[in-house]
């Protein structure tokens, strides 16, 4: 369990309010301070009417801030120890003054309320209501039961803080009896109360303004599976923001892992979920301000799934927006800090150097290239998530290659219909589709390079083991990209089976994580 003070930012009013966060393994709870009745009467604590007796030394014993000119009510900003306001036991820092001696002051300016209180005589009756969402610019100390080191109390407010602990215009010079709670009157306390609970299972986090590349400063939003949002949680320092982001992400990841284990109990060994989670997908070819959209990705069995909402039952897997065979996709990391993209040695064999001309300001991005030259471009919130997706794609693809064993594609050359097979054990084989006669066969290690026209035609360069000469084989495919990705997947899986340490050494995201 983790607790701490933060701010809840309102984008409409552009104000921020003090809140308390309580994080457990499964739920994030937002708490706001309020005044509650703890004993005596059953009266509502929403409105409290209190009579203060002005004292010769200390006056009313309080200070106020705010006013209609600041678009906030006048609130009690200080209560002085052992003086009139404190002795009532019914007033608290953060109470908004509603009435003074029966006169409504909800729309009054600061000076009007000061004047009214100073000239109200020795006995002043005020009606107050605790302002649960006091804007942070008031700089009200959180007070009990807040933390010992309040963020708010150490900073001065741009608003004038009027002290009413000095004597006003008193008509009676004799000392008056101090204000004190009357027997059987209700007793009040200021407490943190739960106002919103957000389940973390399948929840998602965003540090960006909706759909844009604009990063919020020390702030993020948590959205539950059902769409309920925490609102924008703002933190006082970058370190606090990072700590809370990591803590929440860890809990969400742990719950996702539990959900995967539950889902895998209902799946065959060849159809297990390897990894799943939320990402942002960059929208291509749109003129709108919405550059990104939340997507839920899953690596399961032989397929890579893209959902708009997470699958929560076995029936939900059929409603994916897109499904691709894992052998025919290519995972690629994109970011400014990458000097060289060399996920696997197979890139060098095939000369796959497709780059994205995207002016993307987000730091943790990857693409998944699919058939017919198409691709999906994704972003995640943390470097650790990027490293996990890289590792999971490798694992899922390698498992699928080993399960599949081989894949065969129809192709043609010079008018003949042929079949091209990529086999994990044998390498590459080309045979006539009608007679099944093998035309040529090469091992993976004999592939020395390739080139293509970016459309349908590819040249594969093999070294003859006997003559050491390079032999060029040209073929045409309906979906050349899928075939090239499949060759890449099989070579990568072959390298992994022979030298797994090499594969780990090629992990771009994990290298980045360790260096930081």
From TrEMBL:
UniProt protein name: SNTG2 protein
Entry's family note: Belongs to the syntrophin family.
Alphabetic keyword roster: Actin-binding, Cytoplasm, Cytoskeleton
Record SUPFAM superfamilies: PDZ domain-like, PH domain-like
InterPro entries assigned: PDZ (IPR001478), PDZ_sf (IPR036034), PH-like_dom_sf (IPR011993), Syntrophin (IPR015482), Syntrophin_4th (IPR055108)
Chief location: cytoplasm
UniProt source species: Helopsaltes ochotensis
Domain (PDZ) ranges: 49-132
Extent of Low complexity compositional bias: 142-159
Gene3D superfamilies linked to this entry: 2.30.42.10, Pleckstrin-homology domain (PH domain)/Phosphotyrosine-binding domain (PTB)
GO MF term set: actin binding; structural molecule activity
One GO cellular component, as annotated: cytoskeleton
Region entry Disordered, spans: 142-185
PANTHER family reported in the protein's UniProt record: GAMMA-2-SYNTROPHIN (PTHR10554:SF3), SYNTROPHIN (PTHR10554)
Subcellular localization: Cytoplasm, Cytoskeleton
């Amino acid at each position: 369990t983790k607790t701490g003070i933060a701010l809840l930012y309102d984008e409409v009013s552009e104000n921020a309010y003090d809140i308390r966060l309580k994080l457990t393994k499964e739920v994030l709870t937002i708490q706001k301070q309020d005044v509650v009745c703890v004993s005596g009467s059953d009266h509502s604590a929403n409105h409290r009417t209190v009579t203060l007796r002005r004292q010769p030394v200390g006056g009313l014993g309080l200070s106020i801030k705010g006013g209609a000119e600041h678009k906030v009510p006048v609130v009690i900003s200080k209560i002085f120890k052992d003086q009139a306001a404190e002795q009532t036991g019914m007033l608290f820092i953060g109470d908004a003054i509603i009435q003074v001696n029966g006169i409504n002051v909800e729309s009054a300016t600061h000076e009007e309320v000061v004047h009214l209180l100073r000239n109200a005589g020795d006995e002043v009756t005020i009606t107050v209501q605790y302002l649960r969402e006091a804007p942070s610019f008031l700089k009200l100390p959180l007070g009990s039961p807040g933390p010992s080191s309040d963020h708010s109390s150490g900073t001065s407010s741009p608003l004038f803080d009027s002290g009413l602990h000095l004597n006003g215009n008193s008509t009676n010079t004799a000392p008056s009896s101090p204000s004190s709670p009357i027997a059987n009157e209700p007793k009040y306390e200021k407490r943190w109360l739960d106002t919103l609970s957000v389940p973390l299972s399948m929840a998602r986090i965003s540090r960006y303004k909706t759909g844009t590349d604009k990063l919020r400063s020390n702030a993020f939003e948590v959205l539950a599976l059902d769409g309920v949002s925490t609102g924008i949680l703002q933190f006082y320092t970058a370190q606090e923001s990072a700590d809370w982001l990591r803590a929440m992400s860890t809990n969400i990841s742990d719950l996702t892992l539990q959900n995967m284990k539950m889902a895998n109990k209902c799946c065959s060994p060849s159809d297990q979920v390897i990894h799943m989670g939320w990402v942002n997908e960059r929208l291509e070819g749109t003129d709108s301000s919405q550059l990104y959209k939340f997507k839920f990705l899953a690596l399961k069995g032989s397929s890579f799934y893209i959902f708009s909402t997470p699958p929560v039952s076995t029936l939900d897997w059929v409603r994916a927006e897109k499904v691709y065979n894992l052998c025919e996709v290519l995972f690629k990391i994109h970011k400014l800090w990458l000097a060289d993209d060399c996920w696997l040695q197979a890139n060098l064999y095939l000369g796959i150097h497709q780059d994205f001309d995207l002016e993307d300001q987000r730091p943790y991005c990857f693409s998944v290239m699919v058939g017919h030259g198409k691709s999906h471009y994704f972003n995640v919130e943390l470097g650790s998530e990027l490293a996990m997706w890289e590792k999971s794609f490798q694992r899922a693809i390698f498992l699928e290659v080993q399960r599949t064993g081989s894949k065969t594609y129809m192709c043609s050359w010079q008018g003949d219909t042929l079949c091209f097979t990529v086999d994990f054990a044998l390498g590459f084989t080309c045979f006539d589709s009608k007679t099944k006669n093998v035309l040529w066969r090469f091992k993976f290690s004999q592939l020395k390079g390739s080139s293509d026209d970016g459309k349908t035609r590819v040249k594969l360069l093999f070294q003859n083991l006997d003559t050491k000469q390079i032999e060029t084989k040209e073929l045409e495919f309906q979906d050349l990209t899928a075939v090239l990705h499949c060759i890449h997947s099989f070579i990568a899986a072959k390298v992994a089976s022979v030298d797994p340490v090499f594969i780990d050494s090629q992990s771009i995201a994990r290298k980045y994580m360790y260096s930081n």
